[in-house]
Amino acid sequence: MNQVPERTFMQKYHLKGIGWTIIFILLLFLSSVMTEVNWGEFFSNLGQFFALLGRMANPDWQYTNIVVQPIIETIQMALLGTTLGTLVAVPFAFLAARNLVKSPLVRGGIRFFLNLVRTLPDLLLAALFVAIVGIGPTAGVWTLAVFSFGMISKLFYETVETIDSGPIEALQAAGANRVQIIAFAVVPQVVNNFVSYFLYTFEINVRASTVLGYLGAGGIGVFLQRSLSSFRYDQTAVIIIAILLVVVVIDGLSNILREKLL
């Protein structure tokens, strides 16, 4: 007798799953039709992709000495941009957290500003900063800083909103001010997640700085653009391998640090 409701629940759950799957497939089909994606053209020209890989199969290893400095510059840009963005994002995250700021007007204004920052594409930001400070890594650093600020601030305030409210209420009952509450009740609960998000954003910025170089924002992206423009795919292969090694090393170090912190 007790198994009938269980089977009925499982049947309803199964039917809901089938329904959502059908809706998802329809959305994919409609998106493909409305965007006029030609899947046949992609597969018919797939041979060109393998031809390009064939031209990159013999990397110009002498080019390695040239890309070392731009790779280091790319890492430095990502580190500076991520750090600057994080430092500015922390106070904004506290002001946007629902459990710390009770005023809907203040909290709503801060969140609207953060949404506005995240709306700006990183390539647009790079173009703006190149126009302001000129071609070079400075434009890349400021672009990554603004991008990091918009991304990290959202991750931070969402983390703050999920903390245990017990320590906050205890300090409020003891007469602590807002700064003391944040320092002794909030920060100890979120510091590990904050560091994890910082490392995650740093990984993203290393990859993003490669693309920003196409607009003159410094880093290895400038050399990648040059090699592709001159059809030196042997040099392009060296750059891609260098970027891959950097990303793998940073990802490994980040995972080790996350495991120790969390």
In short:
InterPro entries: MetI-like, MetI-like_sf, PhnE/PtxC. The chain has 262 residues and is mainly α. Helices cover 82% and strands 0% of the residues.
Give a written overview of the molecule:
- By secondary structure, this protein is an all-alpha fold.
- It has 2 domains: 3-46; 65-162 and 193-261, MetI-like fold (Orthogonal Bundle).
- The chain contains 11 helices and no strands.
- Helix 4 (64-96) crosses helix 11 (233-261), helix 8 crosses helix 9 (178-212) and helix 10 (220-229) runs antiparallel to helix 11.
- The longest helix has 35 residues, at 178-212.
Number of individual domains: 2
| β-sheet strand percentage | under 5%
Whole-number radius of gyration? Answer: 24 Å
Overall pLDDT score: 84
Helix content: over 70%
What would the CATH topology of the largest domain be?
MetI-like fold
Structural class: mainly alpha
Topology:
Elements lengths: L2 H32 L4 H6 L1 H10 L8 H33 L7 H16 L2 H12 L3 H24 L5 H8 L4 H35 L7 H10 L3 H29 L1
Salient structural properties:
single chain, 262 residues, mainly alpha, MetI-like fold, 11 helices, 82% helix, globular
